[in-house]
Write a structure and sequence with these properties.
The complex is a heterodimer of chains A (113) and B (141).
Chain A: H1 2-7, H2 12-40, H3 50-79, H4 85-112
Helix pairs in contact in A: 2-3, 3-4
Chain B: E1 4-5, E2 8-9, H1 24-54, H2 60-64, H3 67-95, H4 110-133
The chains are: A mainly alpha (113), B mainly alpha (141).
């Protein structure tokens, strides 16, 4: 746990992860839209490098969860009344864990079918 | 004591948004947070719909070809566009090569803020046109 606290304590490390994920998603999203544009236009489409698309998308998904977790936690801390704060953070954690579990399940199911 | 209410300390002070008069930078900042929160809600709804599709309860076309589905897609993409644009401005301010620790004031100005809102409005209009007059997944409705 001490090792975990070294890479994920509050404050500057949260800020660093937020910045890192923001920069990745800032570059990834336009590239992703550009890459899958034919599919969005309803055309028959096969990605030129499916492995690269998968890998970058999975990294984006992981960083999206990190980015949204830090952002929402900050919003809750700033606006939630102090007496409800521990409960709100616990509820937010639960929602995130359920979402990660659900996405893992959907991806596994999709890969196996 | 000024900070005491009913014998208790009135801290931490939580931000009452309706009591604050926003200057342009603050407006972008709070809008960035609102669009981020909306995106999280859309993510939860999107995930629920994805589960419904995976379980065979609905088809993808039920989402992409229905008005509520299109409105959800528009809300998601519009929030994403605003979050991306305002995030880009935040990152430029944060990452600009510091010369005497000064970032060009242009990025804090009302012009930069107006540009973010203008591009978002144009982008949202184009997205709405594409969604409701044909274009995304499955062609014209």
């Amino acid at each position: 746990m001490r090792n975990l606290a070294k890479i994920w304590p509050n404050g500057k490390w949260s800020y660093a992860w937020q910045q890192l994920s923001a920069v990745y998603l800032l570059v990834f999203l336009p590239w992703f839209v550009w890459t899958i544009w034919p599919a969005l236009m309803g055309l028959d489409y096969q990605p030129a490098q499916p492995g690269l698309l998968w890998l970058t998308s999975l990294i984006a998904l992981a960083l999206l969860f990190i980015h949204s977790w830090i952002g929402l936690r900050d919003v809750v801390i700033d606006y939630c009344p102090a007496r409800h704060l521990p409960m709100a953070i616990r509820a937010l954690s639960l929602v995130f864990m359920l979402m990660i579990f659900n996405i893992t399940l959907l991806l596994t199911r999709w890969l196996l079918l | 004591m000024r900070d005491l209410i009913g014998g208790r300390h009135a801290r931490p002070v939580h931000l009452a948004l309706y009591k604050i008069r926003f200057y342009p930078n603050a407006l972008v900042s709070i809008s960035h947070r609102i669009s981020g929160s909306l995106l999280a809600i859309c993510l939860i709804f999107g995930l629920m719909l994805l589960n419904a599709v995976a379980l065979g309860w609905i088809n993808t076309s039920d989402i992409t070809q229905s008005v509520p589905g299109k409105l959800l897609i528009l809300l998601t993409l519009s929030s994403l566009l605003f979050h991306w644009l305002s995030g880009l401005r935040h990152l430029i301010i944060d990452w600009w090569p510091a010369k005497d620790h000064q970032v060009p004031q242009a990025w804090f100005s009302g012009w930069a803020v107006s540009l973010v809102f203008f591009l978002w409005a144009v982008g949202t209009l184009l997205l709405a046109l594409a969604l409701f007059t044909g274009g995304f997944v499955g062609g014209p409705s």
